[in-house]
Amino acid sequence: MNATENIASAAHEQVVFCRDAQTGLHAIIAIHSTLLGPALGGARMYPYGSLDEALVDALRLARGMTYKAAAAGLDLGGGKAVIIGDPASRTPEVIRAFARFVHSLGGRYLTATDVGLKTQDLDLMRSETPFVTGTSPELGGGGDTSILTAVTVFHGLRAAAEEAFGSDDLRGLRVALQGAGKVGSKLLVHLVEGGANVVAIADRDADNAAVLARRFGASAVDPGDIYDVDCDIFSPNALGAVLNDDTIPRLRAKVVCGAANNQLAEDRHADALRERGIVYAPDYLVNSGGIINIAAELEPGGYDSRRAEEMGLRVYDRTREVFRLAREHDESAASAADRLVEQRLAAAAGRGINWPWLQGVANAAAIR
Fold it and tell me: Which of 8, 316, 349, 368 has its CA 20 to 30 A from that of 49?
């Protein structure tokens, strides 16, 4: 499908194409839903091969953020932005130009960091708009969201292990880790401290994989070979669509749980995993630590790391509940999680907009 067809077939509220001739910025902001609150989602910078490729990614990621926020029990909607380009070539001018487009939406979309951008970029955006979350603590933000994301994935993985093996004790379980970037490397530490045996690490940065493998006694494997590793747990922490017709038959694990967004290439792949007896922990549920950390910034009194961590720990019980419902309804955990989210969204439809905290942000914008 072309760009117009992709938008027409999606259920998104708003899609904004952003172009700034002076800086060369080319970006897309996709707002999937604001039923529960303003759309929150990070900005990803990536050298997409085409506009359509970038649009598909933005639409998928925005929808995922709606589901992630709803599943985490947050009063936030879902959105996402993609900046087309090599992150290594980004300039302060490009970052500022993108922030001005975010500001033009008046708070319907709150941006944050994602692949290709760093906290410093968000701090720079804050000079152009207040509608930025995940900034450094000096600016009142919660800082690096990957820290809590790794925590929630770890506890989601414990719940998945209990479902598959009858215990949430990870000691001795063999893990194949795909992706050892900001989240994956932190998850790796939690796994080792929890007694898991990380047997293989794959990363697009082969040197990074090799260093971590030596440090933790694992094998560094090619990203294309990680699916064939004999293990108990396969943990995808890189880009999406890694669970597909080609890779699922190759998996030798009993659990799939990781931080990557949109791990399923298509919804039907959740059933393909289930048919193979593989327990799949819905990605948007277990990797919700980032949005939870950001949501804590919006609480009265500002960001509190202890409150954010307390919110993050609830992912363990939420994941267990999804598995219980999946058994009860004889369906995949992905279907059970989707149904819970859609029930919450349906209940919110027609209530009207009620974002009390946003008025304070808007006032700050007016003062600026």
Answer: 8
Show Cβ contacts of residue 222 under 8 Å, excluding neighbours closer than 6 positions: 202
For domain 3-139, give the CATH number.
3.40.50.10860
Q: What's the pLDDT score for residue 239?
A: 81
Catalytic center residues: 80
Pick the CATH number of 146-340 from 3.40.50.720, 3.40.50.1110, 3.40.50.880, 1.20.1070.10: 3.40.50.720
Count CB neighbours of 19 within 10 A: 12
Q: Convert the pLDDT of each residue in 182-221 to its tens digit.
A: 899 999 999 999 999 999 999 999 999 999 999 999 999 9
Q: What pTM value is reported for the model?
A: 0.85
Q: How far is CA 200 from CA 116, 173, 189, in A?
A: 25, 12, 14
Read off the pLDDT of residues 239-289 as tens digits, 9 standing for 90 and up.
Answer: 889 999 999 999 999 999 999 988 999 999 999 999 999 999 999 999 999
Three-state DSSP at 10 gives coil
